[in-house]
Target: Putative TolA protein
Amino acid sequence: MQKTMILPVCLGILLVGIVMVPSAFAAPDLSYLDLDSQESIIFEGTYGNVLRITVIATNNGNEEISNYYFNPYLHSGGSIYEKSYYMQLDGYGVGQEDCPISIPKIPAGLTREINLCFEIPKTHLENFYLEVLDSSKNYCGACEYCTCTQAQCTIKNPPDPAAQAAAEAQAAAEAQAAAEAQAAAEAQAQAAAEAQAAAEAQATAELQAAAELQAAAEAQATAELQAAAEAQATAELQAAANEAAAAEAAENAANEAAAAEAAENAANEAAAAEAAAQRKAEAAAADAAANAAAQAAASEASQASGGCGTGTVLVDGICQLAPVESSGCGEGTVLVNGVCQLSGSSGTSIPPLYIAGGAAAIGAVIIGIVFAVRRGSGGTKTPKPARQDVEDYESQYLARQGVESSPKPTKKKETPMFCNNCGAAFKKSEAKFCGECGTPRS
Model:
């Protein structure tokens, strides 16, 4: 029983609150709200239509008008229709932008654009007006004190659905035509782009072909230049080889001439050696004569020395060594007829035949040295050795063989102490001049 009483009590309290709450707060005066109809559109459905209206709402009052105090109602053919949301209008093809859920607030002194949707019968096509109350229509006029402010405006008649369909079809056709025209323009632009691409490809191919032709021509020119350079290098190498062969032939000829000259020099040296042997023999004979003369002179000097031995003189009654007087010739030589010659005791005499053989061997060695020097110098001609070099080499060769070389004749140096040309010794204190034999003494 108690539970059954609770529900009616709660409903009563709720109704009292609904009725009394609007009176507890001061609602804005909607008489200051101006409404201006802008557009009306019919969305057809199977069993009814949806009228979407667009109004411009201007708040000329001093208070803000919230969506709580904005309650729109559509009057048509004596009937009143409440606002519908897009979720309630399934099947009409409307969305949230066409039929939004909320209504924007309108601050004091400002204007807002508001879209409202109402579901109406198909027969209602004109004579619409909009009424906006600050409270629900069920409250306004329900009691003596339930008064409400309002704002009204006439709604523009929407276009006829058939005319609207025709307009929409025309608009669709125009859009289709525009799309087709745009597609044709795009196709034309595509064709132009393809033609340009083809032209560019053709130009690129032509440039590539020209570049390939130029590269082939350059390669051919390079090959020809390389072949010419190789031919020239081959010719130069051949010429150099010919010159080298000619130079080698000339060198061989020069070597042969040098060999002939060396042989001639060897023959000359052999002749010179033979002449030297002859001179040595003559010198030996002269030495023997000079020794005999010296022994005679020594005997004479011994007699004049007062009984002293050979090589001594009597000085103040005492025998002393006589001073050695040089004849001007070297050791082992004697002065014969104004020429220094080997003495008979200077060493073993060498037969002329051996001397000639030694000279021939020396000449052969010299020829071998000349050929070796010419080959080792790479074609550089070796100068002919001087006669003095040949004589020095001859002396060295004879020294290695243990044979003493014969010295060249030297000119006798005259001294005031002794003069072989005159054949007698002078007294140092009295000798003033030594000339040729027979020159008077002073």
User: Anything to note?
Assistant: Residues 162-284+323-434 form one domain. Helices lie at 2-24, 161-304, 352-376, 387-400. The mean pLDDT is 78.
